[in-house]
């Protein structure tokens, strides 16, 4: 049966309406006509769930410098970040946050009316090593405010939105980009967006794991689509586990809780981070804290012998440690309600725990993809270890890897990444469109999507998405989690291969067209499996421990052999790996001490 295919023409198409996509749209729309395509209504993007803050060395409450921010970022990355782009990130963070303020973003304020800042993991005064107040915030709803502000600005600039269109393919003919193929979720009809340039900003893929802070929609579609179209994925082995997810549910309790003075406590009532990171304690970088929790639990010091520890932000606890640290500041229950209203609401709703009176049960939760589609400092996608540019294709935000986060991202640095590199990519794309021609569409541009969808729709193999999804998520959590070994990774590889095979005969119940989420979720699962495989393959080959990639069988960082980025390509049904050098700069790699 031949399908009707609708076609739309734009200069540039942006896939994703989170912080990165909207910032890029805002800038690209200044001189090109732009469509933003999103499978979710824009303000439902995961950026809206970001809680704690956006980092910028404004120095509003105490001395700070963007160079300190840069050093913390490089150190936090375990020296895998590219230092040229880290400089851009931290320098431009300052002007970008002020720009957001001018757009109307309602940041919390200091008594003098400046943007309020708080402490966050890994952000320090480089001279003393003590935590510094660098995270600009709007209560614990910073991402929500960023997303709403940018969306309003885009509407004002008359950016055209295609809400609830699901992008399924990139039209790449040799080394040219011609647009994307989408399904309109409401009607099930195919729409091609024919364009000169495409920017991918589809966010992360935490849904590969069982316990995650990520929304259901975070299935890595843009990364998987690029992988299928011959683009490598960089540093996939580095996936961040955030230390404080709500036990079993994975819902995030922001690092801002510890930034406000909250502490992690084991079954013996001990503030165990004092042992693992004597200077910065609970505000060590996330990889360090997640591993500490894991080791406490392994040693039998989880609460009641269980798989979790306590996060304690009760005023009496916080005040005890503030006094011990010689600080004058004291907090009370009203302060918690004001600074962490959503956190208090989450734990009351989901756990029946009142954080003002009781400690909260937490465990590490799969949170953030450091790796992704490799780009240069203008968001242009690169194709290989020589950084060959693929003209017309851009990526920004969590799905991209410009490599500012290296092996471990610092809290608050993702929101900075979205706005700094979203803006750069948008600007470059607008310039590119002024010069570039609209190349013709091939006749069969949508055929691989149409065939894949009708294959899934027609299958009667009896294998259901939820079975494969559950097996994949368990396998990833057990074998490609906070700690890994050759044995666990080889096991994951075998299971995933088997699941990929089963996926071929996946059967859906809803055979209809309109709002067929059964079908779309089955398609998304295909993306997750491929990304889980790329992660496992990249992790298996890296014989060292660095940042979020902690191997029990290679416990040391090995700069001599492994100070390099992984590139994972798809070759038929298997993955092929290559490597490219890290761009160093002012900071020589040295062991991290907190
Ligand atoms: C609970 C939580 C709290 C966080 N807190 C912080 C914080 O305090 N500070 C910080 O710096 N970072 C934080 N992060 C990380 C940060 O929020 C994310 O990394 C960031 O928001 C990702 O933004 P993005 O623009 O790349 O993608 P997202 O905001 O995830 O948006 C992705 C967009 O892509 C669209 N999309 C995806 N696939 C398709 C498709 N196939 N077709 C069409 N559209 C598609 C979606 O509709 C959506 O619009 C947090 C993350 C979580 C999960």
Mean pLDDT: 96
Number of strands: 22
How many helical elements?
Answer: 17
Helix content: 25-40%
Global outline: globular
* Ligand species: flavin-adenine dinucleotide
pLDDT < 50 runs, ≥5 residues: none
β-strand amount: 15-25%
Largest sheet geometry: 8 strands, mixed
Cα-atom Rg, whole angstroms?
23 Å
End-to-end separation: 63 Å
The class by helix and strand makeup works out as alpha/beta
Task: Summarize the SSE layout with pairings.
Blueprint: E1 5-15, H1 19-28, E2 34-38, E3 54-55, H2 66-76, H3 83-103, E4 117-118, E5 135-136, H4 142-156, E6 160-163, E7 165-173, E8 176-184, E9 190-200, H5 221-228, E10 233-234, E11 239-246, H6 256-259, E12 263-265, H7 273-276, H8 286-298, E13 309-312, H9 315-324, H10 333-339, H11 341-351, E14 360-369, E15 373-374, E16 380-382, E17 389-395, E18 400-401, H12 413-435, H13 447-458, H14 465-479, E19 483-484, H15 486-503, H16 517-541, E20 550-551, H17 559-562, E21 564-571, E22 574-581
Parallel strand pairs: 1-2, 1-9, 2-6, 9-17, 15-18, 19-20
Antiparallel strand pairs: 3-5, 4-5, 7-8, 8-9, 10-21, 11-14, 12-13, 13-14, 16-17, 21-22
């Amino acid at each position: 049966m031949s399908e009707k295919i609708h076609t739309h023409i734009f200069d540039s198409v942006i896939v994703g309406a989170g912080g990165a996509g909207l910032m890029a749209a805002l800038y690209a729309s200044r001189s090109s006509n732009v469509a933003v395509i999103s499978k979710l209504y824009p303000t439902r993007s995961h950026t809206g769930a970001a809680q704690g803050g956006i980092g910028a060395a404004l120095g509003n409450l105490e001395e700070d410098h963007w160079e300190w921010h840069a050093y913390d970022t490089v150190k936090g990355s375990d020296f895998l970040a590219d230092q040229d782009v880290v400089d851009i990130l931290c320098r431009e963070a300052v002007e970008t946050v002020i720009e957001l303020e001018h757009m109307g973003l309602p940041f919390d304020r200091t008594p003098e009316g400046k943007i309020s800042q708080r402490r966050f993991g890994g952000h320090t005064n480089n001279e003393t090593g003590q935590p510094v107040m660098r995270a600009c915030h709007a209560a614990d709803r910073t991402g929500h405010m960023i997303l709403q502000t940018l969306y309003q600005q885009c509407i004002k600039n008359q950016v055209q939105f295609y809400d609830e269109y699901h992008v399924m393919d990139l039209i790449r003919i040799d080394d040219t980009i011609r647009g994307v193929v989408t399904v309109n979720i409401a009607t099930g009809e195919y729409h091609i967006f024919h364009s000169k340039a495409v920017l991918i900003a589809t966010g992360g893929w935490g849904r590969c794991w069982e316990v995650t802070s990520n929304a259901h929609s975070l299935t890595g579609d843009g990364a998987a689509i690029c992988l299928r179209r011959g683009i490598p994925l960089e540093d996939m082995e580095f996936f961040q586990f955030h230390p404080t997810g709500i036990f079993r549910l994975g819902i995030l309790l922001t690092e801002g809780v510890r930034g406000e003075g909250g502490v992690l406590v084991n079954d013996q009532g001990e503030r165990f981070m004092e042992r693992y990171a004597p200077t910065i304690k609970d505000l060590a970088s996330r990889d360090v804290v997640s591993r500490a929790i894991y080791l406490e639990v392994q040693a039998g010091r989880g609460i009641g012998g269980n798989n979790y520890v306590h996060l304690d932000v009760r005023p009496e606890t916080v005040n005890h440690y503030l006094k011990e640290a010689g600080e004058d500041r004291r907090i009370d229950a009203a302060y918690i309600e004001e600074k962490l209203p959503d956190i208090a609401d989450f734990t009351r709703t989901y756990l029946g725990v009142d954080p003002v009176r009781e400690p909260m049960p937490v465990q590490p939760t799969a949170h953030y993809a450091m790796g992704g589609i490799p780009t240069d400092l203008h968001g242009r996608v690169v194709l290989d270890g020589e950084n060959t540019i693929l003209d017309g294709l851009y990526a920004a935000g969590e799905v991209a890897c410009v490599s500012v986060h290296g092996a471990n991202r610092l809290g608050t640095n993702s929101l900075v990444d979205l706005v700094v590199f979203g803006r750069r990519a948008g600007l470059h794309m607008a310039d590119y469109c002024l010069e570039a021609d609209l190349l013709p569409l091939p006749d069969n541009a949508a055929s691989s999507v149409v065939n894949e969808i009708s294959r899934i729709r027609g299958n009667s193999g009896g294998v259901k998405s939820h079975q494969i999804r559950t097996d994949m998520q368990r396998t990833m959590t057990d074998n490609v989690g906070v700690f890994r070994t050759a044995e666990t990774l080889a096991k994951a590889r075998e299971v995933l291969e088997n699941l990929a095979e089963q996926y071929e005969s996946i059967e859906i119940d809803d055979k209809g067209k309109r709002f067929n989420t059964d079908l779309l979720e089955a398609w998304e699962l295909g993306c997750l499996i491929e990304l889980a495989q790329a992660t496992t393959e990249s992790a298996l080959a890296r014989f060292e421990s660095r940042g979020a990639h902690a191997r029990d069988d290679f416990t040391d960082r090995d700069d001599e052999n492994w100070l390099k980025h992984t590139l994972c390509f798809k070759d038929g049904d298997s993955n092929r790996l290559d490597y490219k050098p890290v761009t160093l700069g002012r900071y020589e790699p040295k062991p991290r001490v907190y």
